[in-house]
Amino acid sequence: MALLQDEAREEIRRLPDRYEHRQSALIPALFVAQREAGYLSPEALREVSDLLDLPLNEVVAVASFYRLFFLEPVGRHLILLCTNLACMLNGSEAIKRHLASRLGIRPGQTTPDGAFTLRESECLASCHLAPMMLVDRERVGPLTPEAADQVLERYRGR
Amino acid sequence: MAAESILLRFTEGAGTADLDAYLRAGGYEAARHALTALPPESVIDIVEQSGLRGKGGAGFPTGRKWKFIPKGAPVKYVVVNGDEAEPCTFKDHLLLESAPHLLLEGIILVAYAVGAGRAYVYVRRECYLGRERLEQAVAAAQERGFLGRDIFGTEFSLEVIVHTGAGAYIAGEETALLESLEGRRAMPRMRPPFPAIAGLYGKPTVINNVETLCHVPAVIRLGPEAYRALGPPALFSVSGHVRRPGVYELPLGTPMRQMIEHAGGLRPGRRFKAAFPGGSSSAILTEAHLDVPMDYEPLQQAGSMLGSASLIVMDDSTCMVRVVARAMDFYKEESCGKCTPCREGTVWVSQVFERILHGQGRMEDLDLLVHISGGMKNGACFCLLGDSVPPSLDASLAHFRHEYEYHIRTGRCDVEERIAQVPAGSHSRDG
Has this prediction a pTM greater than 0.90? Predict the structure, then answer.
């Protein structure tokens, strides 16, 4: 039985039209699968491999190389807290400790209720907002512990 | 700001992501002029005469890069590097978000100059807003005939496709970007062949950075002399311990001291300590270098480089050991694993820093760092990622060796201890 809905399967089948070589559609296709299935389970990877007619080991090799592909389940919201130089110089370490204690998890983990996955991130190219984080697609900064709490509240129920 | 802003005037206020706003600002006139009045070779000549150099970090002359593209090839590609991820570089994100049509106009000009019918813009995955705005701009430009078939009533046609990465710094290296765009792990390719001869899908390919292409409309509009007379202008990302971190358009050659003033100066009660002039891959400079012009050659003579023109400012509350440890951690995290000196070297260096910062350092660790750094130099690494480790590591050992020694000797940080004695009002949040 297919894991992906017909619509997503059709979307993946159409992706190669934009490229001279079919394999260029692999990264976009993996994002479609991840959007639909939540993460790239072995079944999801196999379906992408079938839909694009690419060897499964190639699909796994690519999925495991890039940081934004999830091979395990993640929370509903992904928090990427930048801890690279500009954010570090502006206190990201304290924000990291604060978020970890508020959420009761360490960076790299997901809250037991499945609401948040917290990750430390490399530079997110928003140094004018340092210290900052990306929550799903939203940039937030400059962060204080209070500002971070408000963002968590806003996303918790979603 | 430069005498005349050529880039940030399109990003200020509400920006020009809206096509009509871009047209009101004079948008697409340079492309119209080039396509209807200039032969492709003239566009290349003008860009070459302007002295425009790549803004992604390598600084290669743009016009010369375009000249490498073989004329007769039936299929050629333009690839735009929008994978901005060099630590503390944030100019391309600003351009993608606030001036996507400026980039599209630059793409039209390069595609026309080299004779390419299709361009791929590789946007960093985390740049969500930039990608959204760029996709909207492509759709709007297509609808109004600035992209697509027979642009400006000429026989020139161009299709622009927006593609994203999936989270990997190495994808910003141009041959690794091509690998990623072809759907593989982003690992750099052997050169030669250079992308100009065999790039995307083995076809001749021009790869340019976002900011680089955003300069091209102004180069065409103003002409090479007037463009050069503006500095030439460049975008500088200024971050760290300044009061107004941000992207500033200033003439190349503006000294660090002045750049810090443009960014609001240091915080009250703080003194300048050190800076990376060109992202974390450039050698750290000190107070003695504050008046060095921020330009390619002067910075090279000072033992560093302009790189992506990202000035990371550090005041006297900064522990240099922690800063370099964080930079080293970045390279360890981002090493693609293709070559041994980088894959292993970055891990070893990080382990030594871990030890020093946890009070378990040994004096001989400093020699060990020098030794590992030496093993990553002189072409030992396959690409620039590994090459990026020695400059800041060596510079920090040369200028701030005493801070390392204090950590090793006492297990504590002398900077933090000094800062702890400063009254709370002027306390920095540095950790």
Answer: yes
